[in-house]
Amino acid sequence: MQRESGLSRRRVAAAGNLLQRVGARGGPEAAVQRAVEFAKQQRQLEQSRLEMMRGYAETSGCRRHYLLGYFGQASGPVCGNCDNCRTGSAQRDSSPSSGPFPVGATIRHREGGEGTVLQVEQDRITVLFASAGYRTLSLEAVQEQHLAEKVADHPQPPDPSRGRRSG
Asked: Where are the chain's structural domains?
């Protein structure tokens, strides 16, 4: 297969693994289409994870809150130990404890589908969508344009390992 395709051994193996992961039902064309869509979703998830880490680096809020939110856990008062808490910026940016989309709530977004609210800040929420990964949404836009609705208050915590590569 490597010789016919002109691809490196590694690329052929990656393509084979991807095709195996999505299944071969429906013929080769359908399997390739599913593999392309799956790879696209994986890239989106990886990009959204990178954006979340960039957000961690740039936050002026409590870094403990940010990390707990990333893993879908509500947090109490600011930690008082991180650099932002010590400088006082975390207290100024402390997260609201309630609102229309509390941490752990399942929402349905017009474009993103269903997702779990991981973090709530004064002006935005961060949601983990099954199909699109992590997205930070303007709370004002979501409310004014009716972009999302709460489906459930506190479902099972999201699985942060979803979408991780194996091996």
From this structure: 8-55, 59-94, 96-157
Residues 6+ apart with CB under 8 A from 34: 22, 23, 26
Task: Evaluate the CA torsion angle 90, 162, 115, 30 in order and state its sign.
Answer: positive
> Which strand ranges, in their side-by-side order, compose the sheet holding 124-129?
133-138, 124-129, 113-120, 106-109, 148-152
CATH of 96-157, one of 3.30.70.100, 2.30.30.140, 3.30.565.10, 1.10.340.30: 2.30.30.140
How confident is the model over 71-83, as pLDDT tens digits? Answer: 877 677 889 999 9
Concatenated DSSP letters for 18-37? Answer: HHHHH--TTHHHHHHHHHHH
Residue 54: CB atoms within 10 Å: 10
pLDDT digit string, tens, across residues 142-154: 999 999 999 887 6
- Residue range 98-112: mean pLDDT, rounded: 86
Q: Around Cβ 24, how many Cβ atoms within 10 Å?
A: 13
**Token pair 């208050």: residue:** 153
Give the residue from 150, 165, 128, 147 showing the smallest Cα distance to 52. Answer: 128
- What global pTM score does this model have? 0.64
